[in-house]
Amino acid sequence: MSVKKCIYKDHKNEESDNLSSPCFQISSDVQLKEVPTNGEEYLLKVIQERKNISTVTKCDKDFSKFAKNQSCFVKELPHAEAPEQFKPTIEWQNIQVADFSDVRMYISRLLAKKSMWPNKLEKVEICENSIVGWKDFFAKKEPTLSCVLGLNHTLLDDGLEALSVIIEKTTPGDTIDHKIGQWIYAFLACTRQPLLSDTTSILRNLARKCAEIRSRINPEDENAKTAVGPLNIFICLVGRYFRQYDLAD
Hints:
By secondary structure, the protein is mostly helical. Helix content is 48%, strand content 0%.
């Protein structure tokens, strides 16, 4: 049977363990030296140095003058509420997440085994990494798997951010362009996980833009439900698949 070892022992109560006194006793013959030559001299030096340090350390700086600047780091942008007629049901959202998960799983298998990649994988290059350059790219290319798989992590983030800027120009009452919607879905399907902080910010911004566009669609319009469909999908995927639950419907 192993013998229990105590680190600290209270001399007043031999049966209790606490931090009141050390269990290592140093002989009175041991002298304090600047450079210890044995274990007892080292322990004595440590004990003496510890006496010069306060038990509780407090910050003596006044940071209150910086408090007024802190809100810029935590300010949350507004998120437009959906009209009741446009709010998707949980069942519908679960179906979208399940379908999207299947697509992501297929892409993950492709990324893990290059022999399964499409024969003509496009080498994607953006001539000008700007909104103009991305608009030209989205107009000339099709959101095919062979094209999207040619995008690296940085380009995926840049492209998704560009798409958020493009849909911001949507005319009030209209929905996003069909091809732009296909590009958004393709980029979301290839977004790498775990998410980087920049990617999370881009996704949240995309969901907010979609919510804002949705809020400006007239519920009385005969095509309203069709128009909000892609917007609801993107808000759902960002909120529920990518776990930004505060933005979900």
